[in-house]
Amino acid sequence: MKLLNEIHQYDIIMFNRLFNARLHPVLANVSRYVSKTGDGYLYLLLAVWVYWQENYTSPFLQAILLGFAIERPIYFVMKNGCKRNRPESALDDFRSVIKPSDQFSFPSGHASAAFMIAVICSFFYPSIFMLLLCWASLIGFSRVALGVHFPTDIVAGMSLGISAALISLGVVLQ
């Protein structure tokens, strides 16, 4: 219990250092747009595009679908099992820039899905690895900048997304 409390205290310190959207309104606006790219619509468009370009037997499409079949259930179990309050509920006199879609913050679903897609896409298109890594990282940062996640929520989401991607690729490509 002491370790969890220490982690939470560290998380609050890091959150307060990173959350500066109120000081920089432009950062808040940019973070809103970056965060929206991780809302899920682009993932659906990507899957449709891959299906249209290749077909349903495409290893790329199968890796995406299996990745989400692995990642989403684990995400929901973790989110509803840990029940970690978002910064707005956990911190006194704090208001996030946006209203999140659900109550709990751990892990970040935006970070999880973004890193999963980034790893899978990078496997099939290695030349855009750095671009995808930056995009996924910016999604994670934007969630902290908007005040809806603590930094460890992002790290946990990133870990989940990368793990789901690697398992998916391992299964599809064996």
What's the helix and strand layout?
Blueprint: H1 2-18, H2 25-36, H3 41-53, H4 59-82, H5 87-90, H6 109-124, H7 129-145, H8 151-172
Helix pairs in contact: 2-7, 4-6, 4-8, 6-7, 6-8, 7-8
If you had to describe this structure to a student in words, what would you say it looks like?
- The chain is mainly α and 174 residues long.
- The chain has one domain: Vanadium-containing Chloroperoxidase, domain 1.
- Helix content is 72%, strand content 0%.
- The protein contains eight helices and no strands.
- The longest helix has 24 residues, at 59-82.
- It is globular.
- The model has no long low-confidence stretch (mean pLDDT 89).
Quick rundown:
This protein is mainly alpha-helical and 174 residues long. It has helices at residues 2-18, 25-36, 41-53, 59-82, 87-90, 109-124, 129-145, 151-172.
Count of individual beta strands: 0
C-alpha-based Rg, rounded: 17 Å
- Tally of individual domains: 1
At CATH's second level, what is the architecture?
Answer: Up-down Bundle
